[in-house]
Write a structure and sequence with these properties.
Order of helices and strands: HHHEEHH
Helix content: 55-70%
Shape: elongated
CATH class: Mainly Alpha
Structural class: alpha+beta
CATH topology: Arc Repressor Mutant, subunit A
Number of domains: 1
Largest sheet: 2 strands, antiparallel
Number of strands: 2
Distance between the termini: 43 Å
Strand order of the largest sheet: 1-2
């Protein structure tokens, strides 16, 4: 199966949130960042499931932080985007921007609102 060069909506949002959060990119802050921008709840479980898929595709990497007492001695799993993840995010943006620009009737409709 050929590897596609674009991402689904949730995958793209996750990658952008990981980039935006930098060193603080782990489950809860990522979910909160998405909630803030989407305006609706995002489960931490769905974030971790999608991040695992993205890691399997080589689009993010993860590492464990130090165990913390407030987490019962469990370590946080931090994520960062890979070069390939960044490339695919940029390619998805390019494709979506081109599609939006190719819809002049939609642009006129939106300007009329």
């Amino acid at each position: 199966m050929a590897e596609r060069g674009y991402l689904g909506e949730f995958e793209l949002m996750l990658l952008l949130a990981v980039v935006r959060l930098g060193d603080e990119a782990y489950g809860v802050p990522i979910a909160r960042e998405l909630e803030k921008h989407r305006g609706k709840d995002v489960s931490v479980g769905s974030v971790y499931a999608a991040l695992e898929r993205l890691e399997g595709k080589g689009l993010v990497e993860s590492s464990l932080g130090d165990p913390t007492p407030e987490r019962g001695g469990k370590a946080k799993r931090y994520f960062r985007i890979t070069r390939e993840g960044l490339r695919q995010a940029q390619e998805t943006r390019r494709v979506l921007t081109g599609l939006w620009k190719a819809l002049p009737e939609l642009k006129r409709t939106l300007e009329g609102l």
